[in-house]
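Protein record
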Amino acid sequence: MESYIKCVEKSIDNEENQLRELGQEIWRNPELGRQEFHAHTLLTSFLRERGFEVEEQFLAPTGFRASFGASDQESGKLHVCFLCEYDALPELGHASGRNLIAEATVAAALGIKAVIETNSNGKRLGKVTVLGCPDQEGNGTKIDAINQDFFKDVDLALTVTPYSANISKPIMLTIMRVTLLYQGKAAHASAQPWEGRNALDAAVLCYNNISVLRQQLKPFMQIHGVISSGGVKPNIIPEKTEMKFYLRARDHLDMAFLQQRANAAFVAAAKATQCEIEFSFTDHPYSNLLTNNTLAEIYERQAKSQGVKFTTDCDKLNTPVGSSDAGNVSHVVPCIAPAFDIDGGVVNHTTEFTEAAGEVAAHCSTVRVAKALAMTAVEAMQDVSVMNKVKQDFMAVEGGSVGLTSWQ
């Protein structure tokens, strides 16, 4: 294993400047989901130049897959997949640090590739794939990959989560996105207000209903919402308003309960204002993350060897870091998505996080966790006893029998 570790470290160190520039170019050119054409070109070109077989526009116009090596279940050569993200947030840019996710996953894949090349006759070292996953902020393509059986021959899936602390097993919640449309009737707000039905009143009541509901929710149940369209002019009673809500819960059972409660609040506002209501739920709900314990333990050990210090703060360990379609992947294949601190505790989805994601400190953190990711995958790929533990952990959690390959 020591020789593998040195091989991973050397391969990533040799490419560090190029990896830094790759992440910087994505950071300087933030693109929204399904519009990441520049990042798509950068990443596919980078990987193709380094010997990966690349399929562009995989699953989506800005998606891709890049592979090296070959898996073989009968001989025990395994297939590890790194989940690469690169979309940005509206107005804020890379306030989720996905330029760093792209850098880390590509770097880790280079580490695995180097080990496969060095140990071409090794029994278990098989194939590495970088899956380009656009639009994590919207309808994540990892779900499309699941639906199209991409993970059928994948043994391990790994990614990272830029954050304000180092956590090997972060809490990621199930999320359901819903858009509400309230339809009322326009009227002159001064001359004949009684002729109108105020859709903005419906939206305000809805928001207040949800605010009251929050105090009655279980731990880890969350609802966030905005009024995305609230009317045209103050002297016209708004006839149409739009609201967007994110509902989060620990798992899909709690989500069903939360949806029932939220729906009652949505409909009550319509009834009170005599408005009509339309619901539009996403067809890509994100699942909670089922972190594989064995992989997480290996990752933490390997990351510590790179100088990463993990938080012991109970509040941070028990605070959800958000949601991701990596959670959906974790229900069909053993998976980890550890959180890593990019700059001493700066908070996600802020301009400060965007700035920090472009700094040298963030790059250095990214290189360390990329090495740890690669070493985690190599340790599992080359040791049958480790893979047996990974499999046992996976089978022990919900959904564990889905999508498993046959480990030798």
